[in-house]
Design goal:
The protein contains 8 helices and 7 strands. The chain is an alpha/beta fold. Strands 1-7-6-2-5-3-4 form a 7-stranded mixed β-sheet, with helices on both faces.
Length: 250
């Protein structure tokens, strides 16, 4: 075991666990004073930046100008690592909520924060229930002008390669009449691969693409739109190259 790996296990991982408990408590407390989730999101962004600092990760953001401060979007990044979440919280310049697997909402501290902050659980293995959740989420987006972030691959790519996209993000965007925003994450796989606790200090790139409009589209267009969305994300991470790319140490 290398010194870097040992340092990660003995220092970085405990600090991340401690900061997560502290910030989740602050987030839940924030919802007692402001129930719309805005303050809780600010706490979450601070938590994300804290985790990046602990991990020695530096994030550069490209294309932030593609997002309007008052816009309502479905944000759709590729998914490589648990470090994607803090990178997105620290880099995306507008408030948003996560659409996430329902089992994440059962994790102590984290799950309570997700519920109270207004994030949206999606049940796995029940297509009918998932469709109802997506329809309700689209309604909330329209009513509150709220942006939602969805990992269209449905989970982390175990080998770091871009996986097929599920149609949930596209379905929700069409229902809400909200633009889809392709986002490419490069470098987080090297920071923390799947099934690893070795957190490496690296540089991460967050590339925000131009929004894809959905106004006037019908749910029957979701297949074509889903293919276009995946093509845009693939271009952002390096065209047909694997999502996993070598980046210089931070």
């Amino acid at each position: 075991m290398s010194l870097s790996h040992l340092y990660s296990l003995l220092v970085k991982c405990p600090l991340i666990a401690l900061s997560t408990m502290v910030m989740a408590t602050l987030s839940v407390t924030a919802t007692l004073f402001k129930k719309d989730g805005v303050l809780a999101h600010k706490v979450a962004c601070a938590w994300g930046r804290m985790l990046l600092a602990i991990g020695g990760v530096k994030v550069s953001v490209e294309g932030a100008g593609n997002l309007s401060p008052n816009g309502c979007y479905v944000l759709t990044p590729n998914h490589l690592s648990y470090m994607d979440t803090p990178s997105l919280l620290g880099g995306i310049p507008i408030p948003f909520r996560f659409l996430a697997k329902d089992d994440l909402f059962e994790i102590p501290f984290l799950g309570h924060h997700l519920h109270r902050a207004g994030h949206i659980p999606v049940p796995l293995g029940d297509a009918r229930a998932s469709l109802k959740v997506l329809t309700r989420a689209a309604h909330v987006m329209r009513q509150q002008s709220l942006s939602v972030l969805v990992f269209p691959e449905g989970g982390r790519a175990e080998d770091g390669i871009l996986q097929p996209f599920k149609e949930g993000a596209v379905y929700m965007a069409i229902k809400a009449g909200a633009p889809l925003v392709p986002i490419g994450i490069i470098g987080t796989y090297e920071v923390l691969p799947m099934h690893s606790l070795h957190i490496r200090g690296r540089r991460v790139r967050l590339r925000i693409g131009e929004p894809i409009p959905t106004a006037g589209l019908h749910v029957r267009d979701r297949g074509r739109l889903n293919s276009l969305l995946r093509e845009r994300v693939a271009e952002l991470i390096g065209h047909t190259e694997p999502a996993r790319q070598t980046v210089p140490p931070a």
